[in-house]
Structures are given as structure tokens and as C-alpha cells.
Amino acid sequence: MRIGVLLIPAVVLSALVAAGCGGRSAPSAAKWADSVCTEVNDWTDQIKSEVGKAQAELQSPSSATKANIQAGIQRSVDDTKQLVANLKALDAPGGAAGRRAKDLVDSLAADVQQTVTEIDRRVKAISPSASLGEAAAALAPIAGDISATLASAKNTLASIEALGSDLKDAFQKEDSCRNLAQ
Questions:
Q1: How far, in Å, CA of 10 to CA of 45, rounded?
Q2: What is the block-wise mean pLDDT of the chain (182 residues), using blocks of 10 residues?
Q3: What is the pLDDT of residues 28-75, one digit of tens each?
Q4: In angstroms, rounded to a whole number, what is the distance separating the alpha carbons of residues 74 and 136?
Q5: What is the spatial distance between Cα 89 and Cα 144, in angstroms, rounded to a whole number?
Q6: CA distances (Å), 58 to each of 6, 52, 62, 67, in order?
Q7: CA–CA separation, 24 vs 17, rounded Å?
Q8: Residues 32, 101: Cα–Cα separation, whole Å
Q9: Helix pair 29-59, 95-125: axis angle to 10 deg
């Protein structure tokens, strides 16, 4: 009876260690790369869609053009905030290269957040009485900000590929990552 009582804690402890104490294991490089690239692709598609809508609004301006463009920018801000949250929520792949890759993605997320904060500030600074031309002039730098952010995302992915063969292979083989390289 005494041996059985002593074995119970040992068996429970062994089970907890074997199960990783309920923690999640690190994702594979391929799964992590696909998650990162899918998030960035989805965000890029959303941003490009909003840019297209804004261009269409400017080609055929109406009394609602300014409000429609501002609403599109707000949707882009919201989409970008979601991207940042999703990237930060991803677990790092295993190993030192995986941790460094996660640091690079977190740094990208912080840069994207800084950009979106600046865009949000610009949008909110436009006077409600501003003309369409004044609003367009105030919003013009946003296109450069978005282009720079997209380029930064691609550069981050290239830096991650340089970290190790598993990550490089994953980013080169995953369909979602190949879409970003284009």
C-alpha cells in the first residue's frame, strides 16, 4: 500500500513531463512560415483593395468621396491592427533561428503598428470642413507609407530566410510565401 501511494506522485509527474505540462510545442518551420505569409498576404490583399477603392473614388469624385476614402483608410487601419495582433500571437518555431525569426516578425509588427498609428493620426487631423483636394493632399503621403511597409515586410521575410536552412526551405516551399515574393 505504501509503495502505491509513493508511486502515484511519480506517475503524475512523469505524465506531466511527457505532456509538456500542458504547454504547446513549437510549430514546424513550414507551419510557421505559412502562418506568417498567410497573414501578410491577407493584409496585403486588403490594403490593395482599399487603395483600389480610393483610386476609383478619386477618378469619379462625388460628395461622398472624402468620407468614403476616410472610411477605407479606417478599414485599413483596423486590418493592420489585426495583422499586428495575429503576428504577435504566433508561437516561434523551434531553435535559436526560430526565436530570432519570431523577433524579426515582432519587430515588423511594431514597425507596422507605428506606421498605422501615423496614418490614423493623419486621417483624424483632416478637418471636417476640408475640401476633397485638401483631404487628398493630406492623405497623399499614406501611399508612400504603405509601400514602405510592404517593402519592409518583404525584407523581413528575406532576413528570416537567411537565418537557417529550415526556415529558408519553408519560406521557399510554402505557396503562401511564394505569393509574397512576387
A1: 53
A2: 36 33 73 92 90 86 87 90 93 89 92 88 84 82 85 87 85 84 62
A3: 989 999 999 999 999 989 988 988 898 888 888 888 888 898 899 889
A4: 15
A5: 28
A6: 77, 10, 9, 12
A7: 13
A8: 10
A9: 20
Residue 106's identity, in one-letter code, is D
Query: Alpha helices, DSSP H only, in 60-131?
Result: 65-89, 95-125
For 145, which DSSP code? H
Task: Look up cell 516561434; give the residue.
Answer: 92
Cβ atoms of 53 and 72 within 8 Å: the answer is: yes
Q: What is the chain's Cα-based Rg?
A: 23
67's grid cell: 468620407
Cell triple for residue 157?
Answer: 521575410
Which grid cell is 17? 513531463
All 3 cell numbers of residue 58?
478619386
Residue type, 157: L
Check residue 100 and give its pLDDT: 92
